[in-house]
Amino acid sequence: MWMKSDADEINTEAFLASLEKDAKERAKRRRENKVLADALKEKGNAAFVRGDYETAILCYSEGLEKLKDMKVLYTNRAQAYIKLGDYRKALVDCDWALKCDEKCTKAYFHMGKAHLALKNYSVSRECYQKILEINPQLQTQVKEYLNQVDLREKADVQEKEAQESLDSGKNSAVTTKNLLETLSKPDQIPLFYAGGIEILTEMMKDCTERTLFRTNNGFSIISENEVIRRCFSTAGKDAVEETVCLSVLRLWQAVCSENEENQRLLVLRPDTGPLLPSLLASRVPAIRQQSLALLLQLAQTENGRSLIIGHLDLIRLLEALVSFLDFSDKKANSAMGLLTDLALQERFQAWFQTSLPDVLPVLTGVLKRDPKVTNISALCQCLAIMGNFSAEAAAQRQMSASEDFGAACLGLMAKCEEDADLFRDVMYALLGLVMNLCLQSPFVSEVWAMEVSKKCLSLLNSQDGGILTRAAGVLSRTLSSSLKIVEEALRAGVVKKMIKFLKAGGQTASRYAVKILAICTNSYQEAREEVLRLDKKLGVLMQLLDSEDEILVGNAALCLGNCMEVPRAASSLLSTDIVPVLLKLAGSDAQQTAVQLNAGIALGKLCTAEPRCAGPRGAQLLLCRKSPQPTRPGHWGALRLKPARGHSMEQGSFLAPAAIVFSLLSSRSLLFPPPSPPTIPTSLSCLSVSSAFPETIKSLTSFFFFPHVGPKHMEECPIGYILELEKQACWGRVGAAR
User: Does the keyword Phosphoprotein belong to this entry (predicted)?
Assistant: First the structure.
């Protein structure tokens, strides 16, 4: 039998040690090279941002010499090659990136872009589809990429057909080319260009001529003409300059009609981004009108809207569109229709959120307008758009933090009060905006909240259902901020009005009304007494407990519990089914836990105020909470029981695991009323689930579950939980596009 010699063992150990040393050295070199490669990547990125693509490529290449499997260097270099038009090299780098990571979506993106530039449309589509297979969450982006492929392929077909028409000597095609050659002559008088452009505009009847305009450098010929540029840049235009500007705007409308590639080339020109918003704000009404017509034409398609959002100066565009509110005719509505179309786009919404500090002064200016001299329907649409944006928490915070914005809201409300009928729609849209602002706490100031509340209390006298509902909605959010506001509301008779709301029905109005009542009865005995005076057996509130709307149910239960503090209120409910209803709610698996809590609180107050509600005998369960320090493992909390009034029980109280009761609530295994008096052991501090105690628990008349109670003593009962209405995404309904 062969045995290893000592020399063999030494050689093996030395070999393994050598391998380990080599692995450590290689790992160290890789770490060092990774640091160098990262530094070169950052250097290349900086050059790319500057537009120095050659230097960027050199940096990425040096980085790859340090670390050959760093995929981001391949994809970054591919992007730089695409910028230089070297699409073949870009494809090679994308292939290398995919060898490093077969699921590299950036590689497929740049590969799709390179194939698109090479007019390999089907291959480009396959690359973009591959991105979707790897990451379905990129569906929106992939959809946009595929749309670009379709548009470019369509444009390619158009250009081939247009060239065939030109080669065949088609009259309109030849005339289009000749006119562009004529217009390319420099240093002519402005009217020379205006006349030629008007003739050219008449030629743009179908796709062939529009495509030939593009393929024969029409956009460059017009936009780079120094005489035409001077006409556009002159602030106070004379008649000739105005004529030139109008002729160009009409030409752009003609060449962009039903031609998305022409739209793309027009908007992508570097001078177009600032020029179109500037023309839209021109002092010359005709230029403003034609500029608006061009933008409306672009915004008819999703691709056109994307071009506007991605390449125009949106702050200046917003300012210009808002200025159309001064127009009394349909141009104001058209401008707001355009703003609506843009506002519905996710990219515009993202821009709005990030640019709000710059946008806020523009919006404040809208609120400061006098509705008497403003296009009312357009103003309403603008306010509705603002209301939609204010549904986002970030926008709410910035708007509500602006004293100027808050003051402008109050000022516009005051102006609308001067003629409630004429400005009804303005007030309605404005209340939607204010309601969203009131979701943020703290408000602009307590003074502001008080002033808003006073105006809404006054609006509760309106005969208009929409105004009434929204005024109540605002109050449901301002009342909880200050007891002074609650007192003001009580003096204005808000309880009586809210009871009327509840009797009239309507889910939204009822939500607001019952929340207002819950807030008022939470703090003031006079509010509780008035509720009972107006709803003697609390039938209106009890009816709400049957609703499937948890907001309604939770606040109604809280209001009922508050009313139990009025003497003899509980006695009036003896003949009702209030106890089983509250028991059912307390043990329900409602998504809003406050529904269970408020029902339990109401039940406890009811049984405390009127022992007969707990049955002829038995123990009344008062409290249950989640204990911060359970008495033994597995016990979530404890129940505190004591005898119902007028009934004897052995001295002492006891605790039982809350988990038992919670389980019973969930399984609905209660007997009501109990068939016999429960046998309650004395001197028990904590009972295990396995004891005989669950049978005793089952026989109790009523109990409920609280996750916590007051901070000091177990015996303190929480006052209740006001359920907040969920955020409304759209208050003012956005009007029709045009």
Answer: yes
